[in-house]
Amino acid sequence: MQGEDKDWFIKFQSPESINLYTYCVSNPLIYVDKTGFDFRSTVGDYFGKEKDIFGLMIGEHWMVGTGKDIVEFPTMYTGENGPWGQYMMKNPILTGKVGDLVIPIGNKVKPGGSIDVTLEIPHMVIENGENAVGYQFLHGTNEKVGGFKISGNISKSKKGDITYMMTYAWNDIIDPNFMYSTDIEKSNAAKENGFFTPKDYEIHLTWYDTTIIREREGEMFWQKNSGWLRNWNKDWDSKLPGKYPRKYIDSENEQAAIGARWEYIRNQIYSSYPMYYCNTID
Fold first, then answer.
1. Measured between alpha carbons, how far is 120 from 150 in angstroms, rounded to an integer?
2. With a threshold of 0.85, does the pTM exceed it?
């Protein structure tokens, strides 16, 4: 293969591309090279600059096209969450929304009482965007494969400490959403690459958490809230860290277009489960 003169500028910018025996500088999962001279025409260009390992795994799994679902449960004997479960609990938007649904139930339980809880949310949204970020690929659950489920037991001690022993399940289909032109472009770029056989698949992530909210938190050094939802506050959406205020606003604006802002969804859930939210629970 011999390039034209105009292509040597590209090769000079990236000397490793001069090697004619390495396609896309040995990185075909990110780059495509339709002409044989310019590996800068990339599938990665469609995914923005921000990325994380979970986003790359989701995207690569789809592009390789095995069709095998990603499924994770906590460890059977220890109950320890896997890497996906730990990852999900680090998202402040999901933390805030789950707190909106779970914490108020405990406030309704009488001292010395407890209740078993089961909630099914068809479409829980955390984040949207064009980057190779796990949260953005997951974006929202899919009702067809289970949606978002919360189950477990909530108890209140006679001193007023509330213990939330809960299991959470995120169920989604990793597939292009053809409502968005960018998803169509990403799908076409992957298929035209020639090295990939994209195939949709399901992802089922389950994790466990025990949150304890102390009635007199902080009075003594051992009286500390603990667990995933230990810092939840009803005004969480105004206290999001870093880039998340912008991400939350973008997500809410998108959901507003289909009449599904979080405030509406949350209130709809409250109305659908009056046994948890409207009465004091013995």
1. 6
2. no
Q: Do 138 and 126 meet the contact criterion of CB atoms below 8 Å apart?
A: yes
pLDDT bin (cut points 50, 70, 90) of residue 37 is very low
Quick one: average pLDDT of 253-257?
82
For 153, the enclosing helix (H) or strand (E) is: strand 148-156
Helix (H) or strand (E) holding 166, with range, is strand 162-174
Among 57, 4, 46, 280, residue whose Cα is nearest residue 185: 46
3-state secondary structure of 42: strand
Q: How many CB atoms lie within 10 A of CB 72?
A: 17
Q: Residue 246, class by beta-carbon neighbours within 10 Å (0-12 exposed, 13-18 middle, 19+ buried)?
A: exposed
Confidence at 239, pLDDT banded by 50, 70, 90: very high
Query: What's the rounded Cα separation, in Å, for the pair 278 and 238?
Result: 26
Interhelix angle 92-108/244-256, nearest 10 degrees: 80
CA separation for the pair 15, 38 (Å, rounded): 12
**Is residue 202 within 8 Å of residue 242, measured between CB atoms?**
no
| Alpha carbon distance, N-terminus to C-terminus of the chain | 78
Q: What's at 191, amino acid-wise?
A: K
Helix segments in 133-222, DSSP class H: 134-138, 181-192
